[in-house]
Amino acid sequence: MTAAVEHRGPAPSRAVLAPFARAGGRALMLGHVHPDADVLGTLLALGLALEGRGWSVAYGGPHPAPAALGFLPGVDRYRVLPGVEGAVDVVVLTDCPNPQRTEGLLEQARRAAGVVVNIDHHPDNRRYGDVNWIDVSAAATGEMVYELLQALGCPLTPAIAGNLFTAIHTDTGSFRYSNVTERTFRVAAALVAAGARPALVSEWLYERRAPDALAWLGEALRRVELSEDGRVAWLALPAGVLPERFIESEELVNYPRSIASVRVACLLREQDGAVKVSLRAKGDVDVQRIAAQFGGGGHPSAAGCTLAGRLSDALPRVLAAVSAALDPAPGGSRPAP
């Protein structure tokens, strides 16, 4: 393909369908760093559907699938890829706005692939594919993959439906985010009718904590801080203060976000000489713009970035950016660490 194609509509165009139109081929479902259910559910669903059409499909990325997502059908086939070898017809990336999140695997795959397909709903997607389908009206990339499978005429097996339902469930914050629409629930209902099991998804995501998890959660919540005006809450975690397995299994940023007065919640996590920042908003604050100041991105209500250096340096910088975005009323106080 000589020129990149971009499609922005809610239904896949001919250009989006074309790479998958053949009766069989070789495909790589390529995930990003620290894959979550948003990306795993969509990659596995599309890959399993292609296998049903006679394709040979490989699944993998720079990091392994987390144990907490071991219930996803086919996730046992997802591998850590030290590199990409051999020719493939299509490489697919879902819910991955920044190609750097593949840690170089995309560039290796591009040399081996006929077409790179980029399917995403993030407004700040870098349009790095040969085919780019970016639908910012979708509450979840899982909605888009559902529409793709419908257009391709792929049957919705219980395994495919379960993967897509989980992806939509997590990408919408359990259907809580403001971008959830009637379309989201229509797709979710169709997936349940096809065999997805909402109770199973909720049990695995929220009711399978390790025995010591509540003690660690208590330690985390003890560290939540609130600005004087009550509009900003943050949780700053120095390196080593909590086990990595616990942090990876919890959406800790949602706890400070749950405070009634809070409009922006921040989770700052020190790790390997850098600080990973997660931002969540309530109301009209666009945290994507805040994250973009530090080279990150995401959605207006949920975004993230990574700052080099120490937590003690990153925290005041992030809080200052949040304060500026909030545009405090005259006389209002700004958050201070």
Structure, described:
- By secondary structure, the protein is α/β, with parallel strands linked by helices.
- It folds into 2 domains: 5-206, inorganic pyrophosphatase (n-terminal core), CATH 3.90.1640.10; 214-326, Diaminopimelate Epimerase, Chain A, domain 1, CATH 3.10.310.
- 34% of the residues lie in helices and 21% in strands.
- It has helices spanning 14-17, 37-51, 105-112, 141-152, 158-171, 182-193, 198-206, 213-222, 244-249, 254-257, 287-292, 311-326, and strands spanning 5-7, 26-30, 56-61, 78-80, 88-94, 113-120, 131-134, 224-226, 232-237, 264-271, 274-281, 297-298, 302-308.
- It has a 7-stranded parallel β-sheet with strand order 1-7-6-5-2-3-4, with helices on both faces. A 6-stranded mixed β-sheet has the order 8-9-10-11-13-12.
- A hairpin with a 3-residue loop joins strand 12 (297-298) and strand 13.
- Helix 2 (37-51) runs antiparallel to helix 5, helix 4 (141-152) packs antiparallel against helix 5 (158-171) and helix 5 packs antiparallel against helix 6.
- The N and C termini lie far apart (51 Å).
- 44% of the residues are buried.
- Residues 331-337 have low confidence and may be disordered.
